[in-house]
Amino acid sequence: MKKLWLIKSYFTYLMKAKSRYVIHSPFVFELLNKVLRDKTEYDDYALIDKIKREQSAREDIMETVDFGASAGESAYKTMMLRKGIIVKQRTAQKSQLELLYRLSKFLKPEVILELGTAAGISASYLKKGNPSSKLITLEGCANLADLAEDTFKKLNLKDIEVISGNFDVTLNEVIANEKRLDLVFFDGNHRKEPTLKYFNSCLKLANENTLFIFDDIHWSSGMEEAWEAIKANPEVSITIDLFWMGLVFFKKGFAKQDFIIKY
Predict the structure, then answer these.
(1) In whole angstroms, what is the distance from residue 88 CA to residue 52 CA?
(2) Alpha helices of the chain — where are they, by DSSP H?
(3) Residue 65: which of 46, 78, 82 has the closest Cα?
(4) Residue 197: other Cβ atoms inside 10 A
(5) Separation of first and last alpha carbons in the chain
(6) How far apart are CA 223 and CA 260, in angstroms?
(7) 242 with 215: CB under 8 angstroms?
(8) What percent of the chain has pLDDT over 70?
(9) Beta-carbon contacts of residue 206 (< 8 Å; ≥ 6 apart)
(10) 237: how many CB neighbours lie within 10 A of its CB?
(11) Which of 7, 19, 35, 215 has its CA 20 to 30 A from that of 61?
């Protein structure tokens, strides 16, 4: 059923999607040309991908705790899995990871927040995109947080704070302690209500140059409903639907615009 839903959603996306040649917003057109269509093979890609492959080959077993959609109706779900399997299952596709890197490189966010650390691969792309940034990443499972720390150590990444625990608690602590959020990657709980809850919490620290990135916006009917609610928020000025990801901007003085773009 999940596969059929995604196929249907993808065909709907393709029918509505526009090419860059019919985009009349100068900001979005620049983003398309300099970020989304950037085919440069940055050295950092190969560096991080090498560590990803090493972590994906690990055979040691780890207990994981999932507070997100995989837990179903339960508060959480525990599993015993090989670390290599976890890395493969919980890491985004190569093209998505590289897009995170380019977005970070282009926007140069000072403070980055990620919800859903997993093995730390996506966080590594975000951090490498702007090495001078402060990156905070939240992970529900303490063992996964340790795996992410190992990834960061192998890549010699600094100024990354990994916080483990339920997002309902840890996110509130981050919001209370930080003054701003320049880029937030939501990749930790693919359900409607938590997604909207975390969006509204992070919105308190957004500024006109902030970017929110939502993973898997068409993953389920609930996530699509969450995406529509986010688009309708009066503080949101520009949204870009790339099917697997949704980009949300808060630019001042911009007319409300929602784009569906082939990527």
Answers:
(1) 9
(2) 2-16, 26-31, 43-56, 83-89, 94-107, 121-129, 142-154, 167-177, 192-203, 221-232
(3) 78
(4) 16
(5) 25
(6) 16
(7) no
(8) 90
(9) 181, 184, 212, 235, 250
(10) 19
(11) 215
- Distances in Å between the alpha carbon of 249 and those of 178, 179, 226, 254? 20, 18, 16, 10
All domains of the chain in start order, with CATH: 2-56+90-260 (3.40.50.150)
pTM of the model: 0.91
Which two structure tokens, joined as six digits, stand for 195? 């997604």
> In the numeric block, which tokens belong to residue 52?
């990803």
The pLDDT tens digits of the residues spanning 134-184 come to 999 999 888 889 999 999 999 999 999 999 988 989 999 999 999 999 999
Which structure tokens are listed for 95?
Answer: 């093209």
In tens, the pLDDT along 35-50 reads 999 999 999 999 999 9
What pLDDT is recorded for position 86? 82
Both structure tokens of 46: 């190969």
